[in-house]
């Protein structure tokens, strides 16, 4: 019995140790996180609305959580829906809004001729980086990161990061514009090709990689020239969405040209008169054939005239010549 109690206690302690490693309970919460939230609220960078609502503080497990979290269901003034609602800290929300307005929507208009209306994304989750047990806590643990998996456009077309990164020319161009634009708003941007964990989504966060928060990580390094014009410049779509137009009305029929003599009923109704034509001579009618007519008389056969025979050659003896014989 005593051995069983000792074994159970050891197993319990081992399980608690694994839990502590998984959540990294010994990691300290950096002071700048709470300061960034307070500054964001003081500057009113996020205005609560029906789509962005403040919720109560999230404290734990461990150092995970936020002092002033927000629950987000829509972005861009309600024009862009979220397939699953996000829980985010105050500082990252205005950066996501700016990225959406300054990069995502202009790129959507250029490459697809229509706006993005829905984003499939992930947000708060208390876990280690790349879901690795014992790793340093991810920025998702503090509501300071967003993972974007796909974009849906106004006509229902969906571009996924997993399939579109090497998809059609328009999909590749759109996602690369989105990726490069994110590097101007976030301190960490990881897309397919950065590592094995980000093959199907684009990760963005506001982590501090140095004491002043000036260092940025933007991976992978790609050779791509952005086609987005400077802010305020009219956009010229590369791929225009076809617009349905009704077929033109058929051209009116010129009666005078198609019926120069005005003999059709249509022309008679329209003009009210006809042009007289000279009557054509009656065609000759064949003679009637009687059913019991006698057969025609046979033609007389003329006697052939006798042919004159040629006269026979005269028979005579050979004549001798005094000349030489060959």
From TrEMBL:
This is Extensin. InterPro entries: Extensin-like_C (IPR009683). Residues 228-326 are annotated as: Disordered. Pfam families: Extensin-like_C (PF06904). PROSITE patterns: PROKAR_LIPOPROTEIN. It comes from the Bacteria. It comes from Methylobacterium aquaticum. Residues 40-219 form the Extensin-like C-terminal domain.
